[in-house]
Amino acid sequence: MNWKMQVSERLQHEFFYLDSLTPVDFFPEENRFYLGIDTSMPWKTEKVGVIQIVHAWQPYLNELTEMFKKRKNKETKPLMVKGISLFIRLLFWSNHEPTDLKNLQEKLELFEAKPVNIVERLQFLMQRPTLYHSFIQLSELMIEQEKIYYKYLVMQKRVNRA
After folding, report:
1. What is the rounded CA–CA span in Å between residue 37 and residue 76?
2. d(Cα 35, Cα 47) in Å, to the nearest integer?
3. Element housing 63 (H / E)
4. Which long-range contacts (C-beta less than 8 Å, at least 24 apart) are formed by 138-143?
5. Rounded to whole angstroms, what are the CA distances from 83 to 34, 57, 134?
């Protein structure tokens, strides 16, 4: 079976089925990993995967900023879903884990490197992706998680030296 058609059970989440898109479109590396097709594991590569996600967010940030300025809120949903998927990837990859949407809340609670109240904040985003406030929250979460990740790396290096 074609991996682009098959969605791993660990990535099946209703939020990421949008028009013709499926979780495979949002989490391709993870899907290939879970299906045993690819073992590259970019979430294990120090900094590289996280930097890729942060850079990938920038065009969405710019386009969403323009759309919200023009009050095209209803049209923002596909881009917001993509942005939320990037944030979830950033969160998982910052914790050196592949994205796993099965029992998402429980997994988030176990992470060391995460923003405060992440479960509630992410639930808000996923329940109301087209609100301007959700866009602001997503933008802040991306910045927070990037900072938390780099702080976590510094702390890990200190622990390993001791």
Report:
1. 33
2. 25
3. helix 48-69
4. 138/80, 138/83, 138/84, 138/87, 139/61, 141/87, 141/115, 142/54, 142/57, 142/61, 142/83, 142/86, 142/87, 142/90
5. 22, 7, 11
Residue 5, pLDDT > 80, answer: no
Query: pLDDT, tens digit, for every residue of 37-73?
Result: 988 899 988 688 899 999 999 999 999 999 999 999 9
- Maximal CA-CA distance, the chain: 53
| Residue 42 CA from chain centroid, whole number | 14
Residue-wise pLDDT tens digits, 12-46: 999 999 999 999 999 999 999 999 998 889 998 86
> Whole-angstrom Cα distance, residue 89 to residue 94?
8
How many Å apart are CA 22 and CA 41, to the nearest integer?
A: 21
Is the distance from CB of 134 to CB of 123 less than 8 angstroms? Answer: no
Q: Which two tokens stand for residue 161?
A: 């030296």
